[in-house]
Amino acid sequence: MKADVIIIGGGLQGLSTALQLGRRGIKAIVLEKESPGRHASGVNAGGLRQLNRHMAEIPLTVAAAEMWRNIRELVDDDCDVVLNGQVRVAESSAQLQKLQARVDTLQAQGYQHEQIIDSETLYRLVPKLVGGCVGALYNPDDGSARPFHAATAFRHKAIALGAEIRSGVEVLGIEESSDGWKLETTQGVFSAATVVNCAGAWANRFAAMLGESVPLIPKAPTLMVTERLPPFLDLTVGAEGYQLSFKQMQNGTVIIGGAHLAKLDFEREQSVIDFATLKTSAQTVTRFFPHMAQVRIVRTWAGIEGFMPDNIPVIGASSKAAGIFHAFGFSAHGFQLSPVVGRIMSELILDGKTDLPIEPFDIRRFHESES
After folding, report:
1. Are residues 302 and 313 in the same domain?
2. What CA–CA distance (Å, rounded) separates 86 from 295?
3. Distance CA 156, CA 171 (A)
4. What is residue 370's predicted lDDT score, i.e. its pLDDT?
5. Alpha carbon 271 to chain centroid, angstroms
6. Is residue 70 part of a domain?
7. Which of 323, 300, 111 is CA-nearest to residue 223?
């Protein structure tokens, strides 16, 4: 089967790319070896976080935040977006000074989306927080969405714009042809002039086929969800020096994350919850929210995600082959970026450039470090 563009991977990055191409009249085929959003895209914490991101990601996260604020215009669904803000709590003056230095750096570059708040403001925003915290890094416009709902909305909109989503199709090989690229799959041969690698934790398999292997590491971050509780928290809470993501959902449950890892058998695509790491996560929660000590955890789960050594993604054209593009390695924080990543990929494919600075995400950074 022939297509204008073939996208490998039906997670949010692939679906967003198909959607944005569709907005410009290009019909893509998305090849997904399982079902769309099966792994990281559908089972993450749904964080819409600009706060405390890697400096290279700031232009992208700011652009993505604007897209999430108007997400219904993009996908005809609100994706259960809630933008009540986020804090990164400081327990000491040294921690607060570190966060202040970050704000100063951002402001020097013209960004105003992060600010320091004092303890009085912090406890007004998070009244159940343990006493003794001195302040926090704060973004009033951060929030969350529901990953499964978002993945579904992006998929439906991409299809409405002409994309074809093929589930249960595993790509086995890729080779150059006279008019582009030919992909051998478990469901036959697909061909296109352009191929986009959005294969998540499996993306290095395809990069390696092109001779540009990268040190991507598959991991399985875990989440916990509690029983329903009376409302006590509007914001998402993190803490300087700790692995913590803590938010109460609309139904009263609390989702607890922080990139604590399950044990992963990648070849079998199976993860086993590591209860020792969940104990550490629970201890962090009760350190900052003592009233949670007797709350029941009702479910835990893990999703397979691709991590890069520098914890920022690969976004851009292949360094080895014309017509190949990459968007992978989002290292457990790609959900918020997904709308703008789709836009970037469509611009690279159709215009040969994007107005956003993506040089730090070039795949060649790993090859240069090896040479």
Report:
1. no
2. 23
3. 23
4. 54
5. 19
6. no
7. 300
